[in-house]
Amino acid sequence: MLCCLPALASALPVSVPALTARQLETRILGSQRLSFSGYAESNATFGLPPLPVFSSVTPLLDGVTRMRVWQAAPDHWRVDTLSDTGENDTYQVGDDTYVWDSGEQLLTGIYGTETIRLPRAADLVPSALAYRLISWAGPGASIGLLPPRRVAGQSAAGLAVSPASAQSTIARADIWASPSTGLPLLVELFGRTSPQPALSTQFLEAAPWTPDNSVLTPQLGPGTGFTSTTPSSFSGVLKNLAEKRMPRHLAGFRRGRSPAPQIYVYGSGLTGFAVLIFPPSSGGQLLGDAVNAGAQQLTFPDGAGAAASAPLINLVLVQSYGSPDTMLLVGFVTKTVLEEAAAELAARPDFGP
Q1: Do 204 and 102 fall into the same domain?
Q2: Which of 213, 233, 253 delimits the end of a domain?
Q3: pTM beyond 0.70
């Protein structure tokens, strides 16, 4: 009987109140203020080459990530990433972040806002991912209702979000959320080349939660270590990015607002890409590592490069013959767009406007 309970629960009738797509979207965006706890799993099949400098990101983009989540507020939460060998916990306390590594028995305090960082497991929690996708979709995106589904034992209302531009690698994002609270319970992200989601993340358990400081406060036990650092020092390979003058347009995309001076964004949201410039000290091996990992070699009139494609994301590395720096172009646009932009950068190593 116990073994049959999950199947019986999924077979229960699904009933949700009548909502318009805009009403459901508004409730999803407003759900960021909720206090809740839950257990979630994401499953990604990106298939990008395993670049050594981005080794911490590779497991998130290929395979299953298991997460235990507690949230008291948008800037006060905890996400534990569970594995067969231990766990890594991330605590957000206002502007500060704490990271616990069970293998190293080390707690690291990162004091200050992280304006530059690599993706982490907390970004794949359904509530965080759904909010980001809707916010990034832009005013031109189309939204519509989906048939309701039962998720985490609850009746969930469905919302489909599709970018306006055909140059986006993302065909649509399907989000199922609690119709009463707006808490996203399941997110499926589809590329343009497959009917199967390239990324699926869902709560298997989710419920309202009364915040408990003992859960949200990192605890140091016997034999554990503690260290502190700054966001820039903790950002790994991204801490050595170079700052350059960049063109106002690349491949027809206008340069937009950037989250940090060292990151250059073209386009916006789900139809945009970023350019990161690595000096020789940190980027000298990037191109060779990418080719050795299986990336496609590229040849430009003014430089050499490599490209890797995934259902949702593309990246291109390029080295201009006129500059020792290595440029990484990555985003939710087609590989053709990135190759065109890379060729323009290789031809203009001085980065004039």
Answers
A1: yes
A2: 233
A3: yes
